[in-house]
Design goal:
The complex is a heterodimer. Chain A has 9 helices and 10 strands. By secondary structure, chain A is of the alpha/beta class. Chain A folds into 2 domains: 193 residues, HUPs (Rossmann fold), CATH 3.40.50.620; 78 residues, no CATH class. Chain A has a 6-stranded mixed sheet with strand order 3-2-1-4-6-5, sandwiched between helices. A 4-stranded antiparallel sheet of chain A has the order 8-7-9-10, with no helix packed on it. In chain A, strand 7 and strand 8 form a beta hairpin. In chain A, helix 1 packs across helix 2, helix 2 packs across helix 6 and helix 6 packs antiparallel against helix 7. Chain B has 3 domains: 214 residues, Rossmann fold, CATH 3.40.50; 92 residues, Elongation Factor Tu (Ef-tu), domain 3 (Beta Barrel); 103 residues, Elongation Factor Tu (Ef-tu), domain 3 (Beta Barrel), CATH 2.40.30.10. Helix content of chain B is 17%, strand content 34%. In chain B, strand 21 and strand 22 form a beta hairpin. Chain B is globular. Chain B contains 7 helices and 22 strands. Chain B is α+β, with helices and mostly antiparallel strands. The chains are: A alpha/beta, B alpha+beta. Chains A and B meet through helix 1, helix 2, helix 6 and helix 7 of A and helix 2, helix 3, strand 2, strand 3 and helix 4 of B.
């Protein structure tokens, strides 16, 4: 008798296994949840891993204060429906405390997330954060472990990672140190969309094509919002767009698209010629090593 | 990129150094299967120009870290993905230098297939032997020997054939530690794109499959009826506080089937206790299923209330496997600090962790000559045969029979770093 799992079953099974290892090995883990598509896949995996029991960890959102309201509403509804617990750690609080000092008020806040995240880890004494990062997203991530060790300062040392063999994950840490666990490391953007389709996952509506006011700035489409206002001499257009990633408003750009269903998005993903971050992340384009640098500083 | 929801996953690794064109082979696979997207490509074009190159250097696709780009070397294992509609491929791209044995071992641990690259001008080198040995040691069953840079030897068929003959000759003598491996040969030019995805026009004499075709058609399935059930318990589910009263007494065991087949009503026993029961329900999430196969993560409940916790293993009731406290294993040492026979280490095996002491270092394998040597200590990248004594019994199989229950990692008790990995050899 010969049987092989389909790739989605295989990826799901691997992700469940990783989450259960976190639950089995770590004493106080947390799942980072943004309301974005990758973290929604994580929640479905967690349901499959732990139901009919409760999740053995709370969810946590690092809130930059610059989010689309649709995503925040969706986030709260989702956690409520699941009957699980949500912790919100907000950048505003770190700013009040003085641990985050912005250079200017309209500065992109993504890189400051690390500070709030590290503060929250310390406050709650978390020894592991589960995240939805994928290795196909970015070249520094391609080299990261599934269970990635961070020192007391939250730093990732790419040249000194713990070897990771078979499906044996070493999540042992001393107090103050931390593991970042990535159950969907081996998923690609296409896998994520196929999983969303198969599992009929609900998503925030800004993932689907909609009319939005935008301006075109340095090869990117910038949505017109109160934190990303129109600059002088810019022309506001109203076009059909969708978001391929959902994050802080100041660093997430939409793409032009008519895809208003998961099925159409899958077709579009199959024929696209621009990578997910290339198209939509204003923060990765600064230099070839910007993600690696942020990760070394404690970023997810 | 293809949209197909029934891809089968194939994990493979590539062995070779920068000079063999390893990165170019991977770059070519990704490029010709249209996995590389325009923005990545334009970045690579920019970098190639900066380096003064006339053609786009596809090897740049696999450079991940700043230090790697600066030094033009690969430091760590990187994982790449592409999909054809028939299969989803996960490539473990490991640097091939001798000092990076640990990376090759890491990459090989999850690979089903290894592509071993040989520079057509140089033929078989010491590193070819090393790569073949490590692939076999780590239990890889399928090898593709790709003779690269055929363009630099004018696509000479005779030279290619003699390299293949030489390889077959020496491979026979590499420790037959595991069951025989399935070897395929092919000539390629990664730089020109010959025989990777497209056939090209330069090697009409070669009638075999291209590299991608070999990957697509390879049969990696194993007969699950031939392997014994191994279900290590990862986590125990007790939703007592649930609002649903029916769940107050619910108790189930969560884990992944590492090998074999598990069906409802199967008679099982829990190891190491030996208590027997039978399977009441199997589920994935809240969905009930009748049977589960190897690699599936499931939740299992038993008919009887018996004590089961993380670290225990469910096997079929008539299985003769038992828990042992002594074994011998081939170990690859990773840490900068030498292995010390006076220290206690932690051994992580399936979902169990035990303290362990070294009984003896039996011999070390010289990774150049593959000869055995007597030594008293182990240094980074050394491979040795070691006997262990455990504090707690483990349920193990020989690595050549079971890659999950035959494998373990060694953890330093004080730093918690992963300092080594081992493959168990049982006498039977």
């Amino acid at each position: 008798m010969k049987k092989l799992l389909s790739h989605l079953d295989w990826l799901e099974s691997e992700a469940i296994h990783i989450m259960r290892e976190v639950a089995g090995q770590c004493s106080n883990p947390v799942l980072l949840f943004s309301g974005g598509k990758d973290s929604l896949c994580l929640l479905r995996v967690a349901e499959k891993a732990f139901r009919p029991g409760r999740f053995p960890f709370p969810m946590m959102h690092i809130d930059t204060g610059h989010n689309y309201p649709e995503v925040i509403n969706f986030r709260d509804k989702k956690i409520n429906d699941l009957g699980e617990r949500l912790i919100v750690a907000s950048l505003e609080d770190s700013m009040k405390k003085g641990s985050i000092v912005l250079k200017s008020n309209d500065e992109p806040r993504n890189k400051y997330q690390s500070i709030t995240l590290l503060e929250a880890i310390e406050e709650h004494d978390f020894d592991c954060c589960i995240g939805g990062a994928r290795r196909d997203e970015e070249k520094a991530r391609a080299k990261e472990r599934i269970m990635s060790f961070r020192d007391e300062f939250g730093q990732w040392d790419p040249k000194n990672q713990r070897p990771e063999l078979w499906d044996l994950y070493n999540a042992k840490v001393h107090k103050g140190e931390n593991i970042r666990a990535f159950p969907i490391s081996n998923w690609t953007e296409m896998d994520v969309w196929q999983y969303i389709e198969r599992e009929k996952l609900e998503l925030p509506n800004i993932y689907f094509a909609h009319q939005r006011e935008i301006v075109r700035r340095d090869n990117s489409i910038v949505p017109v919002t109160n934190v990303t206002p129109v600059r002088e001499n810019e022309l506001v257009e109203k076009i059909m767009v969708r978001f391929r990633t959902v994050g802080d408003i100041t660093c997430t750009a939409p793409v032009e698209s008519d895809a208003d269903t998961v099925e159409k998005i899958i077709l579009e993903t199959a024929s696209t010629s621009i990578s997910e971050r290339g198209a939509t992340r204003l923060d990765d384009q600064v230099s070839e090593a910007s993600m690696e640098q942020r990760k070394k500083e404690g970023y997810f | 990129m293809e949209k197909n929801t029934n891809n089968i996953v194939l994990r493979f690794m590539t062995c070779g150094s920068v000079d063999d064109g390893k990165s170019t082979v991977i770059g070519r696979l990704l490029f010709d299967t249209k996995t590389i997207l325009t923005d990545t490509l334009s970045q690579i074009e920019k970098t190639s120009k900066k380096k003064g190159m006339t053609e786009v250097d596809l090897s740049l696709i696999t450079d991940g870290l700043q230090a790697e780009r600066e030094q033009g070397i690969t430091i760590d294992v990187a994982y790449r993905y592409f999909s054809t509609g028939k299969r989803k491929y996960i490539i473990a791209d490991a640097p091939g230098h001798e000092q990076y044995t640990r990376n090759m071992v890491t990459a090989a641990s999850t690979a089903q297939l290894a592509i071993i690259l040989i520079d057509a001008r140089k033929g078989i080198l010491t590193q070819t032997k090393r790569h073949t040995y490590l692939a076999k040691l780590l239990g890889i069953k399928h090898v593709i020997v790709a003779v690269n840079k055929m363009d630099l030897i004018q696509y000479d068929e005779e030279k290619y054939k003699s390299i293949c003959e030489n390889y077959k000759e020496f491979e026979k003598n590499i420790l037959p530690l595991n069951s025989p491996i399935n070897i395929n040969f092919l000539p390629i030019s990664a730089l020109k794109g010959d025989m990777i995805v497209d056939r090209g026009n330069s090697m009409d004499w070669y009638k075999g499959a291209t590299l991608l075709q070999l990957l697509e058609d390879l049969d990696t399935s194993e007969d699950i009826k031939e392997s014994s059930l191994r279900f290590p318990v990862q986590y125990v589910c007790r939703p007592r506080e649930s609002a649903n009263k029916e769940l107050h007494d619910f108790r189930a065991f969560m884990g992944r089937i590492e090998s074999g087949l598990l069906k409802v009503n199967d008679k099982v026993k829990v190891l190491p206790s030996g208590h027997e029961s039978s399977i009441k329900e199997i589920r994935i999430g809240e969905q009930l299923i009748k049977e589960a196969i190897s690699e599936q993560s499931v939740t299992v409940s038993l008919v009887d209330e018996i004590d089961v916790s993380r670290g225990d293993m469910l096997v079929h009731h008539d299985d003769s496997v038992g828990a042992i406290k002594n074994f011998t294993a081939m170990v690859c040492w990773f840490a900068e600090e030498s292995l010390s026979p006076n220290r206690t280490y932690l051994i992580m095996h399936t979902t169990q962790t035990s303290k362990a002491k070294i009984s003896s270092i039996n011999y070390k394998v010289n990774i150049q000559t593959l000869d055995s040597e007597l030594v008293n200590e182990l240094k980074t990248n050394d491979i040795a045969n070691i006997s262990f004594k455990l504090a707690q019994p483990l349920i193990v199989d020989s690595y050549n029979k079971n890659r999950s229950t035959g494998a373990f990692i060694i953890i330093d008790e004080s730093t918690f770093h992963t300092v080594g990995a081992g493959m168990i050899q049982l006498l039977d």
